[in-house]
Amino acid sequence: MAPISTPQTPFGRVLTAMVTPFTADGALDLDGAQRLATHLVDAGNDGLVINGTTGESPTTSDAEKSELVRAVLEAVGDRAHVIAGIGTNDTRHSVELARTAERDGAHGLLAVTPYYNKPPQEGLYRHFSAIADSTGLPVMLYDIPGRSGVPIDTETIVRLAEHPRIVANKDAKGDLGRASWAIARSGLAWYSGDDMLNLPLLSVGACGFVSVVGHLVTPELRALLDAHLGGEVQKATEIHQKLLPVYTGMFRTQGVMTTKAALALQGLPAGPLRPPLVELSEQETEQLKVDLAAGGVEL
Fold first, then answer.
1. Which residues touch 243 (CB under 8 Å, ≥6 apart)?
2. pLDDT tens-digit profile of 19-35?
3. Taking the model in full, what pTM does it have?
4. CA distance 65 to 133
5. Which residues are annotated as catalytic?
6. Which pLDDT belongs to residue 1?
7. pLDDT tens digits for 276-294?
């Protein structure tokens, strides 16, 4: 049985954008992926995003992406939403990945803004519409101009929200004013895609998080969310402030690199990174330990 969703929270509230574990020789570690997925859901995640940026999707093959979705679904698909990242900068390729993810049983799709080729807003509209037209699955847009080079303008988000299968947006734009207007006008379920802004985005109408630090602090994220929803503003603020060293430490450098280092320190499945990403230096690892300890994370 698929996990429960509502129009307000179509993918749950607390989701982690999961790393893709690899074996020592760089191959896909499906057993490790299942163990990590189980650990994350046991910790309190409502859902997992697979094959996203944190999953090193630029360096995994289409076949590996499909294998990973099926493996995670087998492990936790009856307890959590499994969202497949299918975004590329090629609309046809993204549609192919979307259809494969649907066949594999994914509960939803994450579609990132096409990167590198810098399409105009009409190109973005047609790209996301083609993906949403291609399957029966609900779609979460992913607006991250720092990586894609192009923001999804508010007017484009409002247009896309008219599509019956475009139901949510992952916001990594870093602009609370634009987020406020887009949430109010589009009616989409809004997920923070920038951990430092988890609480501020809740305050302007977000319903939850798609988090990187959720690999380490899911219970704290859920406590923050519950406090906010329960009107305990001061408690939510205190949790936010306690997590600041974690937010800062995990993004001193590339987030996949720090996440895999932190998981390895905790004895959880992660494995090496695929080039061009590289392991943290000894100095970077020591700084990460300091940051995580300051945020209450036990290694």
1. 195, 213, 217, 220, 221, 224, 295
2. 999 999 999 999 999 99
3. 0.96
4. 21
5. 142, 170
6. 57
7. 999 999 999 999 999 999 9
Q: Are 116 and 145 in contact (CB under 8 A)?
A: no
- Of 50, 111, 58, the C-alpha closest to 273 is 58
Going by the DSSP 8-state scheme, the letter that residue 122 receives in this structure is H
200 Cβ neighbours under 8 A, 6+ residues apart: 176
What local confidence, expressed as pLDDT, does residue 299 receive? 87
Q: Region 205-223: what's the mean pLDDT?
A: 98
Which residues, at least 6 apart from 281, have a Cβ–Cβ distance to it below 8 Å? none
- Other Cβ atoms less than 10 A from the Cβ of 141: the count is 28
Sequence-separated (6 or more) residues with CB below 8 Å from residue 22? 28, 29, 32, 271, 272, 273, 274
Q: Within a 13 Å sphere around the CA of 144, how many CA atoms are in the beta-carbon half? A: 21
Indicate the helix (H) or strand (E) that contains 250.
helix 233-250
Beta strands in the chain (DSSP E): 14-17, 47-50, 81-85, 108-112, 139-143, 166-171, 189-192, 208-211
